[in-house]
């Protein structure tokens, strides 16, 4: 195991003081363990700076000494991008103490926050100011804005508002040499050259450390309508998306696919959940509309969408939430899908995207391909198909040993990714590459793209000290 010299560790400790250092093994463990427990890293200490200046001083010291850094937000990554490797020669830099809301500009509809702000707290600050910050993901109570930016997080409202790339106007970033890029501009138009902020969004901390961001705010919706509908197949679900867009304009906020298999898992294992429809159907859609005025027109629009779906044979049954509690109950069914899968044994996760028009064919062919490989595999395909993102998660056959199934992760993944490539998709829709897909991406991304990414990395981080070994393999 490689060791960082004691004098370097002492200098790093001095930057943040006693309050900014975690060195006790028990207290360090949450920072070193990946959320799904796939990786357990090693580090001599955790640094928790309280300001951008402290972050910059840490990075300058690491650049001077060639010390490797792993920036970390809420550590909710699903691809191993936020924990160190096992060599013990990386410092974990947690942004959790940097959680200030620096400014809310209501006339500009922006909020400026530090990277350690928990997403839910940003949502709450916006709400208290009479605005909406629309990012919604399952980990919003623990994930941090810096991590959301570094992985270009998506979530359930991308269809209406876009992902993090679309929600950011400006960034403050500490570069790998310790300089600070002061890019906290709240401009929606700035045509003065390269859009540098986009380099750091989705880079998973490999090009610099995001310390603050200017985020877009939106009017709070005064009317929200939620419906849960049964559809005959995925093709019908995609067709209903077109119907909903045509009849509502820009009011479709969420369009989530739910398979019967996944719903059954939720009903079996998650408390206080109930089947919202009387009959059993193979596929469902959770759809939400929102509008700025509560005039009753939105309810009429939702009803018109469902009626047209019935008439076209694309909706078999449906229910509309009559209250906030009923809406939350419907959402719980969708949001509990991953949790429920854990109780059913091993599952192999794929966060992929394809063009919406090819979603039905992809799910059908990929499902057949995987079941042919491991007969009895239960395909749980769910998620944000309104923006082309599906969580394609095969669950083990009930009679199969869990570890035996998980040992075939790469084999199953290869089959899924082959179908993703066939349909012009991406092997990572919103979780990033991290460590999990770092080597896999080389097989599916254009060689010119890979070379451009490596050039950018070498240009900004020639010493390879920023989250090394994530996103890009340093060996090529």
Brief description of this entry?
It is built from 18 helices and 18 strands. With 476 residues, it is an alpha+beta fold.
Structural class: alpha+beta
Instruction: Assign the CATH topology of the largest domain.
Output: Uridine Diphospho-n-acetylenolpyruvylglucosamine Reductase, domain 3
Q: Largest sheet, order of strands side by side?
A: 5-6-10-8-9
- Number of separate strands: 18
Shape verdict: globular
Query: What Rg do the Cα atoms give?
Result: 23 Å
Number of discrete domains: 4
Distance between the termini: 23 Å
Largest sheet features: 5 strands, antiparallel
Your description of this structure?
Strands 5-6-10-8-9 form a 5-stranded antiparallel β-sheet. A 4-stranded mixed β-sheet has the order 1-2-4-3. It has 476 residues and is of the alpha+beta class. The chain is 36% helix and 19% strand. The protein folds into 4 domains: 6-94, Uridine Diphospho-n-acetylenolpyruvylglucosamine Reductase, domain 2 (2-Layer Sandwich), CATH 3.30.43.10; 101-219, Uridine Diphospho-n-acetylenolpyruvylglucosamine Reductase, domain 3; 223-338, Alpha-Beta Plaits, CATH 3.30.70; 344-422, Alpha-Beta Plaits. Strand 17 (378-382) and strand 18 (389-395) form a beta hairpin. It is built from 18 helices and 18 strands. The mean pLDDT is 94.
